[in-house]
Design brief:
Layout (H helix, E strand, L loop, with lengths): L1 E3 L9 E4 L3 E5 L12 E4 L1 E3 L2 H13 L9 E6 L2 H15 L6 E7 L6 H9 L6 E5 L7 E7 L1 H16 L6 H15 E8 L2 E12 L3 H13 L5 E5 L4 E6 L2 H9 L7 H12 L3 E5 L1 H10 L4 H8 L3 H9 L4 E2 H7 L7 H6 L1 E6 L3 E3 L3 H11 L2
Parallel strand pairs: 7-8
Antiparallel strand pairs: 1-5, 2-3, 3-4, 6-9, 7-9, 10-11, 11-13, 12-13, 14-15, 14-16, 16-17
Helix pairs in contact: 1-2, 1-5, 10-11
C-alpha cells in the first residue's frame, strides 16, 4: 500500500515536483505571505514500521490541539524518542534544521545534553533545556516548526485512518504497538510481597474517543477482551485488559517491544511466574515410575515435601515447570514427550490454558522450558 502525498494537498497550494520528492507550501490569506515550504516524498509506503510511528504520534503528540504552527512529540523514554525522530526523518524527510529539541527536567543532570545528543545522534547544540516541577523524569519534546508540515502531517494521518487497516493483521498490530508505547502501561500489584500483573491498560483523555474506539476495534479483531473505565473527575479514561490469556496474545504480537522500560517490566514479572503443568492420569503415573526413585528423593530434587509429591502423583497437586526441568534428567521421557501429554498449563491460581505454539514460545523464553 502506498499513499501519494500530492493527492492529499488542498487546491491552491504550491507544489513543486522533483523526481521522487515534492516541495509544498501555500500562500496565507492573512498578511498575504508564503508559509515556509517543506520537502516530502511523493509516495509513502504504508508498512508495519510506518504504522508503529503513526501509533506513537497518535498517542504522544499534540495532534488534538488547535494550534497548527508546529507539531510536537513528547516522551520520557529515550528509545521511543529516537524511534519518533527516525520516523519523521525516514518517512517524511524532515530536516533537523526544522526541528527544535527541548528536554524538561526536575532534577538537574549536568550531562543531560550529552546523554540525549549521543542517544539521538544529534549535536548537543541542538538541544535546549528547561526546569519544570511538573516532570518527575526528564522529558524530551521534539517540535517540527512549520504550519505546512503540521497540516500535511494531519492530512496524512486522516488518510491513513480512513483506510481499513484493521483487516490487515501486521498493520493493526503495528498501530497497537505504537499506541501502547505512547499510552500503555503494565499495571503491577503485590500479593504476599510477590509482584504480579494486575492489568494492562491504555490511558487516554475523555476527549480522545475516536482513539479509544480505534483501540477497541483492534482488540476485538484480535479476540482480546477488555473493559473501559471513564473517570470524569480527572477527564480521563482507560482501556483495561486482564487475564493471562489476553496478556499472552499481546506478548505474541510483540506489543511491548517498542518501549524498553515497559518491555522489561513485563519480562521481569513473566520470568517470576508460577506456571504449573497438568498431565493425563496415565502419563503422569508413567512419568513418575520412570524416575526409579522414592518420593523422598523426588521431594529433594524438586525442593518440596514428600506429602506434596504424593499429591502430585495422584493428580491433586501440579508440578511447576522448574520442578519438571529438575526431574527430566532422571526420566526416559524427552521434552517433546512431555509437551504431547500436557492437558493444560495453569498460570497463577485461575488461568488455565491449552498448549499451543504461542504458549510454548512464551515458556521457552521465560521459563527455560
Amino acid at each position: 500500500m502506498e499513499i501519494n502525498i500530492v493527492n492529499l494537498i488542498p487546491k491552491g497550494w504550491l507544489i513543486k515536483a522533483f523526481e521522487n520528492n515534492v516541495e509544498i507550501t501555500y500562500v496565507s490569506n492573512r498578511g498575504n505571505y508564503n508559509r515556509k515550504s517543506f520537502i516530502f516524498p511523493k509516495e509513502i509506503i504504508v508498512n508495519e514500521e510506518l504504522i508503529e510511528g503513526i501509533g506513537l504520534f497518535l498517542g504522544d503528540s499534540d495532534l488534538n490541539k488547535k494550534d497548527k504552527r508546529h507539531l510536537t512529540y513528547a516522551s520520557i523514554d529515550k528509545d521511543i524518542s529516537k524511534k519518533a525522530l527516525n520516523f519523521l526523518q525516514k518517512s517524511f524527510l524532515t530536516d533537523l534544521k526544522d526541528i527544535t529539541f527541548l528536554v524538561q527536567y526536575k532534577t538537574l543532570n549536568k550531562n543531560l545534553k550529552e546523554e540525549w545528543s549521543k542517544f539521538l545522534e544529534i549535536s548537543k547544540e541542538k538541544i535546549y533545556t528547561r526546569y519544570s516541577d511538573r516532570h518527575r523524569n526528564e522529558c524530551l519534546q521534539i517540535q517540527v516548526n512549520g504550519t505546512v508540515f503540521r497540516k500535511v502531517f494531519e492530512l496524512f494521518i486522516k488518510e491513513i485512518l480512513s483506510r481499513d487497516l484493521i483487516k490487515i493483521p501486521e498493520l493493526r498490530r503495528g498501530l497497537l504497538r505504537g499506541l501502547f508505547a505512547a499510552e500503555g502501561n503494565v499495571g503491577i500489584d503485590y500479593l504476599e510481597k510477590k509482584p504480579y500483573i494486575s492489568q494492562i491498560t491504555f490511558n487516554l483523555s475523555i476527549k480522545e474517543q475516536e482513539l479509544c474506539d480505534l483501540i477497541s476495534k483492534i482488540l476485538e479483531s484480535e479476540i482480546i477482551s477488555y473493559k473501559i473505565n471513564k473517570h470524569y473527575k480527572t477527564n480521563s479514561q482507560e482501556i483495561v485488559i486482564q487475564n493471562w490469556k489476553n496478556y499472552l496474545k499481546l506478548w505474541n504480537m510483540d506489543l511491548f517491544n517498542l518501549c524498553k522500560r515497559k518491555n522489561n517490566k513485563f519480562k521481569d514479572i513473566s520470568s517470576k511466574l508460577n506456571v504449573h503443568l497438568s498431565f493425563n492420569d496415565d502419563f503422569r503415573k508413567e512419568f513418575f515410575e520412570s524416575l526409579n526413585m522414592n518420593q523422598k528423593d523426588i521431594a529433594k530434587i524438586i525442593g518440596s515435601w514428600q506429602a506434596n509429591v504424593c499429591k502430585t502423583i495422584n493428580g491433586t497437586h501440579l508440578l511447576k515447570i522448574e520442578q519438571l526441568n529438575n526431574l527430566l534428567p532422571y526420566s526416559k521421557f524427552t521434552k517433546e514427550d512431555i509437551i504431547k501429554n500436557i492437558e493444560y498449563i495453569r498460570i497463577g491460581l485461575l488461568t488455565k490454558l491449552k498448549v499451543n505454539e504461542e504458549i510454548l514460545r512464551f515458556l521457552k523464553e521465560f521459563k527455560s522450558f
